[in-house]
Amino acid sequence: MDTSPLPACAFNQIPSIEEACAIMPQNEDLLELAHLFVQHDIHHSWGIGLFHRHTTLPDGCIMLHNPGESENDDICTIKRLSDLDQAVLSPSALCLNPNGQLQGFEYDTHPRPAPGSDFAHHFHNVLTRRSLLDKVAIVAIDSIEGSMLECVLADSDGRVYGTRSALGKWEDADAVDTVWKVQADGEVVSIRGCRTLPTGLHEVYH
Predict the structure, then answer these.
(1) CA–CA gap between residue 33 and residue 47 (Å, rounded)
(2) Which end of the chain has fewer beta carbons closer than 10 Å to its terminal beta carbon, N or C?
(3) In angstroms, how far is CA 127 from the centroid of its own chain?
(4) Distances from the Cα of 199 to the Cαs of 161, 177, 202, in angstroms?
(5) Has residue 3 been placed in a domain?
(6) Contacts of 171 by beta carbon, 8 Å cutoff, 6+ apart
(7) What DSSP assignment string belongs to 129-170?
């Protein structure tokens, strides 16, 4: 695993949510990946993610998730690496870089076990064979509990503020699935979705 954050120039090549919605992985793709997650026993901490971004990242910066004033708030902010204690940072979303290594492209401060090199090797093989390298990422699921609605607002500084509130289901919200939890039996369950509003703002459901 490459422990350095994905450079901003590479982050900005990640498909936008609008672009990612047009190249969704198919159900058979998800099921093969789910088998891999269970085989390597990472499905308790990590889920399958639609590889996408919501903003543009300046050089020398990362996307960092932090709690807001309420325990139900999540603030994802663009932060300069030079202003942070990198020893406490933990990847909350991983992608495969051009060298075939897992590398973080979103962060928080919750320590969790990273997938091993053997998983990364097989993950790379599956994504290459199924043409999924620009479609699939790995997302930490330990911070996603229950069904919630997160309205994501981005300002001119790239600050993304998410206010979460209880929500039963998002099937009727015209949202696209973006994170799937892998069950022990190899089945997948969507636990997060996103849609773009007419205003251009994004709503994230989970």
Answers:
(1) 10
(2) N
(3) 16
(4) 16, 20, 9
(5) no
(6) none
(7) HTT-TTTEEEEE-TT--S-EEEEEEE-TT--EEEEEEE-S--
On whether residue 2 sits in a domain, the answer given is: no
How much is the pLDDT for 178?
87
Encoding tokens for residue 77?
């902010």
Q: Which regions of the chain are under pLDDT 70?
A: 67-75, 143-174, 195-206
Looking at the domain assignment, is residue 104 inside a domain? yes
Q: How many structural domains comprise the chain? A: 1
What is the span of the domain harbouring residue 24?
8-205
Both tokens of residue 36? 């891999």
179 close to 48: Cβ distance less than 8 angstroms: yes
pTM: 0.84
What pLDDT does 144 receive? 52
**pLDDT score recorded for residue 150:** 45
* Tokens describing residue 183: 């069950």
Give buried/exposed letters for 61-89 (b at 16+ CB in 10 A, else e).
bbbbbeeeeeeeebebebbebeebeeeeb
Beta strands in the chain (DSSP E): 46-50, 61-67, 73-80, 90-96, 102-108, 136-140, 148-154, 160-166, 176-182, 188-196, 202-205
Residue 101 placed within a domain: yes
